[in-house]
Design brief:
Layout (H helix, E strand, L loop, with lengths): L7 H7 L3 H5 L2 E5 L5 H10 L4 E6 L21 H8 L4 E4 L4 H6 L7 E4 L4 H11 L3 E4 L11 E5 L7 H12 L7 E5 L12 H20 L1
Parallel strand pairs: 1-2, 1-4, 2-3, 4-5, 5-7
Antiparallel strand pairs: 6-7
Length: about 210
């Protein structure tokens, strides 16, 4: 009788590429509404070496969209480390200074799921050759509007527009793929829907797996 395990169906889908997926080293910056779902997807796909970085604690307003947010006031990365056994969790605020000092070389892929613009720009300068980045998932309700493109080909998305401007202003002339939505914002505040923020995370995970395979 054939013995099956939790990754049996991943092996069926990915075939000879599955060991490559398992052994990839992923750095995930931010485990909020987008990053948390991305982490869940990557972990369930069998990636063994995932490092997450986040400084926040769970707040009550996170509970409409964030995995682990039932643990109010707890440090997000600590909760994730308990939920996803074996990941490496860093309780650190991602700042330009931290980015400048951190060793990105030991990772095969860097996933940016943070909102801080100065840090996002610093990350792009540091490791754009192996970077994928999330744009704005708030204020929207339609996950079918989510797209993947070069950061320079984004449109409609307010965070992406600001990101392009700051990248140009900083002298960045590289390129990398991002996940964004061309749905027009439906509110002025940071209203959010897990159907979109979670789909951003799934799109990041899918893009990550495809880049690993390629």
């Amino acid at each position: 009788m054939t013995t099956m395990d939790r990754f049996d169906r991943c092996r069926i889908l990915f075939g000879e590429n599955f060991p490559k997926i398992q052994n990839s080293k992923i750095l995930l910056l931010g485990v909020g509404g987008v990053g948390g779902v991305c982490l869940d997807s990557l972990y369930r796909t069998g990636i063994k070496h995932i490092t997450i970085v986040d400084f926040d604690r769970f707040e009550v307003t996170n509970q409409n969209r964030q995995i682990g947010s039932e643990n109010l006031e707890d440090i997000k990365v600590d909760v994730m480390a308990k939920m996803f056994y074996g990941i490496n969790a860093l309780h650190v605020k991602v700042t330009p200074e931290w980015v400048d000092e951190f060793d990105f070389d030991r990772f095969d892929l860097v996933i940016d799921a943070i909102d801080d613009m100065k840090a996002k720009v610093a990350i792009a300068h540091k490791c754009s050759h192996k970077l994928i980045s999330s744009m704005g998932g708030a204020k929207k309700i339609d996950p079918t509007c989510i797209q993947i493109s070069s950061v320079w080909k984004t449109h409609t998305d307010g965070l992406a527009k600001k990101f392009r401007y700051e990248l140009k202003r900083s002298g960045f002339n590289g390129d990398f793929d991002v996940v964004f939505s061309d749905e027009l914002p439906l509110c002025k505040g940071l209203g959010s829907f897990i159907g979109v923020t979670g789909s951003f995370g799934l799109a990041l995970a899918s893009l990550a797996i495809r880049k690993i395979i390629e």
